[in-house]
Write a structure and sequence with these properties.
Blueprint (H helix, E strand, L loop, with lengths): L3 E3 L6 H12 L13 H14 L8 E2 H8 L6 H13 L6 E2 L8 E2 L4 E2 L4 H12 L1 H8 L3 H8 L3 H10 L1 E2 L2 E2 L3 H10 L1 H26 L4 H14 L4 H10 L5 H14 L6 H13 L1 E4 L2 E4 L15
Helix pairs in contact: 4-11, 5-6, 5-10, 6-9, 10-11, 11-13, 11-14, 12-13, 13-14
Length: 304
């Protein structure tokens, strides 16, 4: 049975894919900026009216997605990633300098140089598709490859040398943006997200009895922002919610993670986690209705 998938307010690479497909079919969303606004809703409505297969709501259903993009409906991992990357303020291409002690941050969830994630992605892409590195970095490609294999103190010093405020100095900012735009590089980023973030999140979700799309999205967001569900948080939530339904578990988990966050981040963590747990809320001053992000508390995900 078809269900609502994407609607007003959703953002990210999946929305850009939708907009591009709408444009290709003659239903102009006015931009392919990855933001589902009035123009995209109007283009979806026009498509639905022309197809005459369902009410013209301007909200993309599963069936609409398949008809418009000619691809399978994005899985819960892709939808969770789209939400978390929006919270994080990142896309596949954004790179930032050493303003926060991470040396260099880049990519869909903010992979860092300090923790070896940027190096691993560059090295893997260079092994499988070396032309991507050369095309993106040009005359700076050799320097990049030298740095990813250098000692940590050299990597930190290099990151400091190309940091301008919170941004990267040119040409590095544009180079990393170009690199992140390549399909091969985006696929490598997604492989790392799956292995290092989504798979552990699934295990935490199983332990806590979370099976809904919102439950999976919450566990994933915790893995990205907070490093996972600690044993203390897990035990606290399990003890407090024994026999309760999942909505109660989600909210208890959201609050427990926030309670154990650093004081200066606690309010932000709580707002973000409760928005996912409840399916709606406000984060960084923006309202979120997660039913328009393809995430529902009533949809059960087959895992485990």
């Amino acid at each position: 049975m078809s269900r609502p998938l994407f609607g007003m307010g959703s953002r990210g690479a999946l929305i850009e894919q939708l907009q591009t497909a709408l444009q290709g079919k003659g239903f102009d969303p006015k931009a392919t900026d990855g933001r589902f606004g009035n123009d995209t809703a109007a283009a979806v409505t026009a498509f639905q009216t022309a197809a005459a297969t369902a009410p013209a709501t301007g909200v993309v259903s599963d069936d609409d997605w398949t008809a418009i993009t000619e691809t399978a409906v994005p899985d819960v991992e892709a939808r969770s990633l789209q939400l978390t990357s929006t919270f994080e303020g990142h896309g596949f291409t954004l790179a930032q300098g050493n303003w926060d002690g991470a040396w260099l941050t880049w990519g869909i969830i903010g992979f860092t140089l300090k923790h070896g994630e940027v190096q691993a992605i560059v090295e893997n892409v260079n092994a499988s598709a070396p032309d991507c590195v050369q095309r993106a970095f040009g005359a700076d490609a050799d320097k990049l490859l030298e740095i990813v294999g250098a000692a940590p103190d050299e990597q930190e010093a290099w990151a400091n040398s190309i940091t301008a405020g919170s941004a990267l100095a040119e040409p590095w900012r544009t180079n990393f943006a170009t690199f992140g735009s390549f399909p091969e590089v985006q696929a490598e980023q997604c492989r790392r997200v799956h292995a290092d973030y989504f798979s552990p999140a699934i295990q935490h979700a199983l332990t806590l009895g979370l099976r809904s799309e919102l439950g999976i999205a919450l566990a994933f967001d915790i893995q990205v922002q907070n490093g996972g569900v600690s044993a203390h948080v897990r035990d606290t939530v399990l003890a407090a919610t024994s026999g309760q339904d999942e909505a109660v578990v989600r909210e208890a988990l959201a609050n427990a993670v926030a309670d154990n966050a650093k004081p200066q981040f606690r309010d932000d963590v709580r707002a973000r986690k409760l928005t996912i747990a409840r399916g709606q809320g406000s984060v960084h001053g923006r309202a979120f209705a997660l039913e328009h992000w393809g995430l529902s508390g009533g949809q059960i995900v087959a895992i485990g």
